[in-house]
Each structure stands twice: as C-alpha cells, then as structure tokens.
From TrEMBL:
Keyword Glycosyltransferase annotated: yes
Chief localisation class: membrane
Enzyme class: transferase
TM region(s), chain numbering: none
Subcellular location: Endomembrane system
Entry's Gene Ontology cellular component terms: Golgi apparatus
Pathway info: Glycan metabolism; pectin biosynthesis
Protein family membership: Belongs to the glycosyltransferase 8 family.
GO molecular function, one term: glycosyltransferase activity
Record's protein name: Hexosyltransferase
Alphabetically ordered keywords of this record: Glycoprotein, Glycosyltransferase, Membrane, Signal, Signal-anchor, Transferase, Transmembrane, Transmembrane helix
Protein's gene: GATL1
Length: 364
C-alpha cells in the first residue's frame, strides 16, 4: 500500500510502511483557513492502522471495498458523508474510527468523502489507515462556492469545503437517497444505524437535533429583522436553531425541492447586504429552520470546542450522549498537543490514530 508525502503542494510517492505501521511523513501546509502563513510547516503526522471491525450476526453481508461505484449503489446499510482536508485529517480519522467501533455492522457502512485538494494523498492515507473501508472521494470544486462566501467571525468557517454539505445532493450518486452528514470534529459513542434510521416525514428533507431554547434572533443581523421582506421568510414556522454538523439528509426530496439553489440565493443576498455573521449555518436556518425532522439531542452534544473567539472548555448538555461534537474554536487534538486539554477532550483521545510525533525543527 503506497502512502504519499506532501511538501509544498506537490504530492509524490513515498516509501511504504515500516514494521506494518504506516509512516506518513506529512509536512503539513496549514492553509490560510487555519490562520497560518500558507507555507508554514506545522507538523509531522504519522498515523497508525486502525483495528479491523467486523459485522455481527444479523448484519447484511459486508460491502466489498473494492467494488467500483458505478450506476448502481453498493448495498450499504448506512451512507455517511464527511469532508476531508489536510488541516482536519486527524479529526476525520478519529471520527471514522469511532463510527466503526460503535457500529454493530461496521462493514456495511459506506463513506463518501468530499475533498477539494490533495485528493491522491488523502485517498492513499485513508486506505492505509482503514485498509478495508468501503469509501469514495468525490472531488469538490472550491470555485463552486468561493464567489458566494462572505467573511464571517471565524476564518475557519469561511473555507469553501465548509459549504460542501449544501452540495451533497448534487455530488453524491443519485442512487444514494439518504446520507448522514458528519463534521470532522466529533466522535460517536453509539451505533450510527440508529441515527441513520431517523424518520423524516414528508415534506421534510432534513433531520437534526433542534434547540428551541437558543435565541434564534441572534443568528441574524438587525438589518435582517428590520426588513419585513426578509424576516417574513420565518413567518408561519416555528424556527429553531439546529447545528449543521450532524444531519440526516433525504437527498431525493432535497433534489426535488432545489434546496441547494435556495441556499445559494441566501448566500448571494448576504454578499449584497449583511444579514448574518456566521458562515454556512445561517443559510441552512433560512431554508430549513422549523421544517426539519427532530433528532434526539443525544446525537449532537455540540459546543465542546467552546465559543468562536476563545474556545473555552464547555460541559455536556444534560441527558444521554451518543455523539460528542467539538464545534467552536477549540479542537481536542490541538488542546491535547498544547498540554492544555479540557476535561472532555479525554473522551476524544482514545479514538486518535496519530502516532506520537517526531518533531521537526522549523525555523520560525
Ligand atoms: C483512490 O484510489 C483508488 C485506487 O486505490 C482509485 O480507484 C480511485 O479512483 C482513487 N480516487 C481518487 C479520488 O483519487
Ligand atoms: C436575543 O438576541 C437579540 C439579538 O442579539 C437580543 O436583542 C435579545 O435581547 C435576545 N433575547 C433574549 C431573550 O435573550
């Protein structure tokens, strides 16, 4: 299995595994999105191979990971979609690891990754870490959305890939009717099959945990609320906040209703007048709030990354936990590396597949 190294934007072949472990020397370019100079070398990442997890009795037969995705879909029990980029790779790998570990039919989960750069490297990295994972990488063209993005309060929210979730119904093969979209900064501690089976009664196209106690007004600017032709769009629905990091999507209904285009229209308006401050969330609220199917709150214990400015430690919301989500500025891997973890970061650590790093000297 060939791994690859990236250095200064060029992918080239890299010698294979050492002692059955994967040696990925990743001279990682953190892009502008991560608030770093484009050429800064941040780390030397080596991942280990994840354990293999097997289907239990009563599961469908495992998906053959080498099946080519053509006109028909592999017979998956659950389809999962995630974005994939170099900056959040460690988070994504931990998330996949957690999904497989807590599923009773891990070999029947099909992964759809959206990536806009370093696709060959990401492809070989996943194959090395999860040698029998059934997955496909769908290329995401940043320019599809780049011209529609307005700057928000946090640079990481403005990465084009952050908007890729709105395009899943276009990017995924039409034989996929339902997908579970997941962010990269989360782990599951429960069987994803239960989340994927969430009923989405007609006419909803989306299911997510709703938070009706959150102050909905705060997600839009006074300009928005002061303009009746805009605020009327929430009339007649009980609009509640939901987090777009965990969503079950009915792709067929979404395609029929043209929701991607409706999201784009709001983003285009935001370019002309500032109607919200956050990134990809508000257009979702504009199109879907009050029109989604509810999911139990256990499936998105979000906010563990703290707020968007300082990333302070946060506690769990009351109630059971099936999914922990480090939304907000602080990420468990960076806080652990910095030696200043929050108490709940200890729950993320067991899913981390990074090998202890060999620091490289970097002139800074
Ligand atoms: C990933 O690698 C496989 C072979 O291992 C290849 O068939 C597939 O086309 C690659 N995907 C991308 C997006 O490069
Ligand atoms: C909700 O947010 C708006 C705008 O930030 C604020 O003016 C209002 O006082 C808040 N309402 C409550 C109940 O906190």
């Amino acid at each position: 299995m060939a791994a690859a190294a990236i250095h200064c934007g060029k992918a080239k072949p890299f010698p294979k595994m050492l002692d059955g472990k994967i040696s990925l020397v990743l001279l990682l370019l953190l892009l502008a999105a991560a608030n770093a100079a484009p050429s800064s070398i941040v780390g030397n990442l080596r991942f280990r191979e994840a354990p293999q997890f097997y289907n239990s009795n009563g599961c469908p037969p495992p998906i053959n990971p080498s099946t080519e995705y053509s006109s028909s879909c592999p017979s998956s029990l659950v389809d999962v979609a995630m974005t994939l980029d170099v900056a959040y790779l460690r988070g994504s790998m931990a998330a996949i690891n957690s999904i497989l570990q807590h599923s009773s039919c891990p070999q029947s989960i099909y992964f759809h990754f959206l990536a806009s750069s370093f696709t060959i490297f990401l492809n070989s990295t996943i194959s090395s870490i999860f040698p029998s994972l059934p997955f496909i990488i769908h290329p995401f063209d940043d320019s599809l959305v780049a011209g529609r993005i307005s700057t928000s309060i946090r640079a990481a929210l403005d990465r084009p890939l952050n908007y890729a979730r709105s395009y899943l119904p276009r990017l995924l093969p039409t034989c996929v009717n339902r997908v579970v979209y997941l962010d990269s900064d989360l782990i599951l501690v429960d069987d994803i099959t239960a989340l994927a089976a969430t009923p989405i009664p007609f006419p909803a196209a989306l299911a997510a945990p709703e938070y009706c106690n959150a102050n909905f007004t705060a997600y839009f600017t006074p300009t928005f609320w002061a303009n009746p032709s805009l605020s009327v769009s929430f009339e007649g629905r009980r609009a509640c906040y939901f987090n777009t990091g965990v969503m079950v999507m009915d792709l067929e209904r979404w395609r029929e209703e043209g929701y991607t285009e409706r999201i784009e229209e709001w983003m285009d308006l935001q370019k002309r007048m500032r109607i919200y401050e956050l990134g990809s969330l508000p257009p979702f609220l504009l199109v879907f709030a009050g029109r989604i199917a509810a999911v139990d709150h256990r499936w998105n214990q979000h906010g563990l990354g703290g707020d968007n400015f300082r990333g302070l430690c946060r506690d769990l919301h009351p109630g059971p936990v099936s999914l922990l989500h480090w939304s907000g500025k602080g990420k468990p891997w960076s806080r652990l590396d910095a030696g200043r973890p929050c108490p709940l970061d200890a729950l993320w650590a067991p899913y981390d597949l990074l090998q202890p790093a060999f620091p490289i000297d970097v002139d800074s």
